[in-house]
Every structure is written in structure tokens, then in C-alpha cells.
Amino acid sequence: MSLLPVFARAISAAGLNPEQRERIKQLSFADAGHGYDAFGMHRDFVGMGLVITAGLYDSYFRVQSHGHEHLPAKGQAVVVANHSGTLPTDAAMLWTDIVRKSNPPRIARPVADHFVPMMPVIGTVFARGGMVGGSRGNARALLGAGEMVMIFPEGVPGISKHFKDRYHLTDWRVGHVELAIRHQAPVIPVGIVGPEEQMPQIGKLNVRLLGAPFIPLTLTPIPLPVRYHILYGPPIPIPDLYRPEQADDPGAVREAAARTRAAVEALLEQGLAERPGIFK
Amino acid sequence: MKREAMRGVLVTGVDTPVGELLVRSLLADDAIGQVLAVGSRPPEDALPFSHAGRLTYIQLDLLKERRVKDLLFGPARDLGVEVVVHTALTTEARAEGRKVHALNVDATRSLLQLCERHPTIHRFVLRSHAEVYEVQADLPVLIAEDHPLNLSQNAPQFVRDRVEADLHACVQMGLSKLKIVVMRCAEVLAPGTGSQLYDYLESPICFRPMGFDPMLNVLSLKDVVRALEFATRAAEQGVYNIPGADTIPLSEAINKWGRLSIPVPGSWMTPLYRWRRRLRGHDFSYGMNRKRFHYSGVLDGTRARDVLGYVPEHPVDWPA
């Protein structure tokens, strides 16, 4: 038998406090039968995810976050953030922060690069926690169902950026705004300060290993205990600014992407200016 | 469901559980006058149930085009058949060769051509299959009707024939005076339906690739028959995905079937199931299912819900 669901249920039951359990229960969730949604998400695994990330969130990265009121209470939305840190702990902490602190409780479905579902175990466990593979069809289906998706427009070049490029957004892909315009979803910009310094990367080997697209060369073998500051910005009202058919207008899409990029950059500047230090 | 009177329905493939149940269900509908059932078994072995004179069974080899023509322009015309539901595709994945292709593809094409010239038939329903779709890590999990088809040269004939028959019906849409409805049904988890998963679950121990647990969608016999009934009355032609009520990870499907699920390294799967096939005569081919045993693929039934009014209602009867 498969032991993972049993573990997930046990860990979820033992590790969550009553308030967290209640939040998981309240998550809006399109059960496609047997407790899973069509993408494989399951409440027990979301609960297990909260238990697993608790140590990192509370003690190691000591996440501080501001601006949760900008997350919509319901309906489709695209959460857009900077991506960095060699390991995707920024996505994990943002996912955790939204599940823990959004009001009412919501989950943002991380849209990962194609290689993630190809990775054994990781692909499956992440999918159970709400991740979907990075195809336009997956994001379209989720937004169409009124869910919130989490996109890192920098993608793999962001997470593998050189230490000297920290807090500089790399190539800002435009797919997220194309989706937002087509589905008339607001974009919630997020700046994540901290992970850009957690695992200074000085190079990479372009070798594929277990589905991962490269092997990073870093100054530290594990992430440093930097403090994470997550700043949510006011929603960019895409439905007020663009009509759905403008999703096919390259000029409108580029302009919208420039807006989201500027919003994330402003949040990063604010976060950097306000934090007392890398570890504080 | 809107029940306008219909003089007659012709169903092929009534030797299979889907065809037989569809005939039963159509006979239970008073709005349908006559049911013309076509199968390969001798009449005395086929459809052993009462029908109050509303059922005509014809033993027919669909490869014999002349006899098919005689049927359509003889008894079918006399009974006033308005709709043809074609479900007769090979159910054995191992079956290969020209004769199999002739049944799967050529017979479908010639039936469709004959229906186009027919004086009373105005609707053609093809029971197609979810196997026509490609499943890959970089493709959407939720499979809409515009999802890429599996056109790989390496796909087995079982899949290639299904794609070819499906595409042939699709191409005729709009060119033909017929209303053509292509029903891409999820896998029916029942014996005799061509279900690879059913055959896989026949063993007490089910091996699966370690580290992967994809989402599957399976259909019950009751729901596939309901969907085909909706199609016989569809006002619109088109392609429709027909999902079932069960969307479930592979490991849970194994557990719910009362089997032992054992993850093994992916490279072991092909030899293990090749030997199972050789020694025990099973039909399951791991090569055919390798991608969907790694990556999720679930039919999106939005179009069938919005246009046909079909929503899955009957889950599979899981033994455990």
C-alpha cells in the first residue's frame, strides 16, 4: 500500500494546532472525488506541508510578512513574486504564509516549471500540496475555477541567479499577465526579501540530475538562516485596465508585465530599506 | 434529459458490456421505438433479455461492407433508424495487424460513409477513448478537447487505430449532412471494455513506478451508458470528453481495488509487466501506459456538461 497518505494524515493530525486544522478545513477546494482535486491536491498533504515548513517558517527563516489584506477573499487572482535562493524555499515560505495568514484562509497554487512534475517524489508531494506543472492549460483551469495561482515570472533563471545579481529581477516573463488579462484576474505583487542572500550562488553546472535542469555551485551547502520579509502589495486591477481580448495584444501584455515588474521592484526596495539586517 | 420520440437507434458492438448495457438502457426508454443491435455472436447467445418486440439483433461482421450496406439500407431503413451509435472497436491491446485496423478504422469509415447517404439516419455517435490524448509532464493535467493527441509513431496500434477512427469522424464534422458526435470516454473500469487499468488491477500485487503517483480518472459502466444516451439525443454535433465520477491517484485506485501497491524503480516496470504478459497472458502493456503512470491526465468534462448536460453521477463500485 501507499504509505504517503497515511503519513500525511498522521503528521497533519499530530503537528497542527486546532486553529491551523480549522484553517485547512476552511480552504476552498474543488474535490474531484476521494478527497483530491484533479491536480492531486489533498487537505492532509496541505496540513503536512504546514507541519514540515513550520520549523523553517517560525525558527529558521523567522518569516515576517505584511499586507495580507491585499489578498482577495475569493475569486481568481495571480500572486506574482521575485524568485531566488537556489532552493525554492521562497515559494514554500510564501505558500505557507498565505495558508497561515490569509483571511479567509486561501491557498495559492504554485505554478512550477515543467521539470518539477518530472522529479520523483518531489513532483508528487508538491502536487499534493497544491503545486501544478507550468503549462498554460493548468493555470487557465485553476483561474477559471476561481482559484489563486502563484507565479514566479523569473522562473529557473531567477532561482539560479548569481549572487551579484541579488534583488535584480532577471528576465521577467509575460505569461502571468497574459493569463491575468484573459481571465480578468487581479495581480497581487509580492516582494520576498531574504532568500536572495540565503545560498550565494557563484556558478552552475549545466547537468541534468533527477529532472533538475542544473547543478548549482554555491558558497554554502545549505541555505543560511536569513530572515524572510514577505511584502504583499496592493492588487494591480487588471480587469479595470485591460479587456480579455487584450491578452492577445503583445503591446498590452508587455505594458501589463512592466507594471507588475515595477510593483515587485518597489516592494523589494521597500523591504530592503526597512529591514534592520540580513539576519534580523 | 429531453425525451423526444425517436423511431430507431442502431448500436454496434453489443457483444461488449458497454454495447449490451446501452441496448438495455435504450429499451427502457419508451420514447425510442426500435433498437437494432449489431454484434458478432450468434443470435441465440446475444442479448438474453426481454424486449417486447422492440429489439432486433443482427449478427454481422462489420468488415463485410456489402452486408453492412444491406443492413443499413434494409432493416435499418425499414425500422426508421435515426441514430447510429458505433462502439465496436477492438478491446484487446495485443490485437494487431491489418484485420484489426480494418475493424477499428476502415469499418468506422465505411459505416460513416454509408450513413451519410442514408435516408433516415441523421446522427452518428462514435464511442471514442481517452487514450487518444497525449499525457506528458509539460501538458495540462486537465485534458480539454483541444489537448494534443497521441500521434506518436511509437504508439501501439491499439492507440493509433483509436486516434485514426476518432480523427476520421472529426474530419467529417461539418462536411457531412450527418450530425457527428465523438464521445472521448475516460477508461471504463470494467471487464471486456478494453480497460488497461482493469487488467493491471487483476493481479494481487500491482507494481508502480517509484516516486510517482499520478491522478487518473475512471468511468463506470452506468455513466458511460448515460453519456452515450445523452449523445443519441444531442442537438449539437462535436467532440466531448466524458469523464467519470472517480478522480483518484494511481496508488489509491490500487488500494481501493483491494490490491497491494508496491513502488519499484521505473526501469523495472517494463520487464516485470512484459513477463506478466508472457506468462499469464494478461493484456496490460506497461509501454502503453508508461506516461500516464508518471504524469497526471484527467478529462475535463466542462463541454459535455454545458452542451450535452452530462455530469458523472455513478462512481465505480470499488471492492475495498
Task: List the SSEs and their pairings.
The complex is a heterodimer of chains A (280) and B (320).
Chain A: H1 4-15, H2 18-26, H3 43-60, E1 64-66, E2 77-81, H4 89-101, E3 108-112, H5 122-128, E4 132-133, H6 136-144, E5 148-151, H7 155-159, H8 175-183, E6 187-193, E7 201-205, E8 215-218, E9 229-232, H9 238-241, H10 250-274
Parallel strand pairs in A: 1-9, 2-5, 2-6, 3-4, 3-5
Antiparallel strand pairs in A: 6-9, 7-8
Helix pairs in contact in A: 1-3, 2-3, 3-4, 6-8, 8-10
Chain B: E1 6-12, H1 17-27, E2 32-39, E3 55-59, H2 65-79, E4 81-86, H3 98-116, E5 123-129, E6 142-143, H4 157-172, E7 179-185, E8 187-188, H5 196-200, E9 205-209, E10 215-219, H6 221-232, E11 238-242, E12 246-249, H7 250-256, E13 260-264, H8 266-280, H9 286-289, E14 298-299, H10 302-308
Parallel strand pairs in B: 1-2, 1-4, 2-3, 4-5, 5-7, 6-14, 7-11, 8-10, 9-13
Antiparallel strand pairs in B: 10-12
Task: Record keyword descriptors for this entry.
A: about 280 residues; alpha/beta; two-stranded antiparallel ribbon; 10 helices; 9 strands; about 40% helix; B: about 325 residues; Rossmann fold; seven-stranded parallel β-sheet; three-stranded mixed β-sheet; 14 strands
Q: What would your notes on this structure say?
A:
The complex is a heterodimer of chains A (280) and B (320). By secondary structure, chain A is of the alpha/beta class. Chain A has one domain: Glycerol-3-phosphate (1)-acyltransferase, CATH 3.40.1130. Chain A contains 10 helices and 9 strands. Chain A has helices spanning 4-15, 18-26, 43-60, 89-101, 122-128, 136-144, 155-159, 175-183, 238-241, 250-274, and strands at 64-66, 77-81, 108-112, 132-133, 148-151, 187-193, 201-205, 215-218, 229-232. In chain A, the strands form 2 sheets. A 7-stranded mixed beta sheet of chain A has the order 1-9-6-2-5-3-4, with helices on both faces. Chain A has a two-stranded antiparallel sheet with strand order 7-8. The mean pLDDT of chain A is 93. In chain B, helix 3 (98-116) runs parallel beside helix 4 (157-172). By secondary structure, chain B is an alpha/beta fold. The two termini of chain B are 33 Å apart. Chain B has a 7-stranded parallel beta sheet, sandwiched between helices. In chain B, 50% of the residues are buried. The mean pLDDT of chain B is 93. The interface between A and B is medium-sized, with 31 and 34 residues.
